[in-house]
Amino acid sequence: MVSPRRTFATATLSLAQVKETSKHLQITINDMVMAMAAGALRQLLLRYDGRADRPIVASVPTSTDRSPHRISGNELGGMAVSLPTHIDDPLQRVRLTALGTGIAKENNELFGPELYGKLITYLPSIAAPAAFRWLSRRDTRNKVFNVPISNVAGPA
User: Fold this and answer.
1) Taking a C-beta distance cutoff of 8 angstroms, is the pair 31, 104 a contact?
2) For the chain, first and last CA: distance in Å?
C-alpha cells in the first residue's frame, strides 16, 4: 500500500564527474546510476529495516525499439537486475552492480528484449490489479522484483 507520507529527495551531480568516474572505474554511466541507487537503497534498508543483508532486484525498463528514426512513443521491455544492497564497501558494490547489469543485459539478449512485454500479455487486464495487489502483500523472498529503476530515453 502506498502511504500518504511518501517523500521525495534529489541530489545534483556533475555529469562530467559521473562520466570521469565511470571511465576511471571502466563501467558505464548506467552502471553508475544503478550503483548509486543500490547505495541509496542500502541506506534506506538500514534506516527503516535495521538491516541490509541480501541483494534486492530492480526491474529496469528497456526500449525494444532500437530504430534511430523513432519519432514518438516507447516500446518497452525490461530486465531484472540484482543490486548488491548487502555490500557495505562502495567500490565492491559498484563492481558487483556492473556485473549484475552485465548478466541482466546478457539474459535480455538471450531471451529477447520483448520477453517482459510478452509475459504481461498473458495476464488479462481485468485481473492485473488484483494479481499485483496479491503479489505485493506476499512476504516472501521470491518476489519478481523489489523496486523499479528507470533511465529509458524518450523519443528524439
Assistant:
1) no
2) 35
3-state secondary structure of 57: strand
Global model pTM greater than 0.85? no
Tell me the C-alpha distance between 61 and 75, whole Å.
Answer: 10
77 is written with which cell numbers?
A: 521491455
Give residue for cell 521525495. 8
Distance CA 75, CA 59 (A): 16
Q: Which three cell numbers stand for residue 5?
A: 507520507
Distance CA 133, CA 144 (A): 13
Q: How far apart are CA 61 and CA 129, in angstroms?
A: 19
DSSP alpha helix (H) spans, the chain: 15-25, 29-49, 90-111, 115-121, 128-137
Q: Dump pLDDT digits (tens) for 125-141.
A: 777 777 767 766 766 65
Give per-residue pLDDT as tens, 64-92: 766 777 666 666 677 889 999 999 999 99
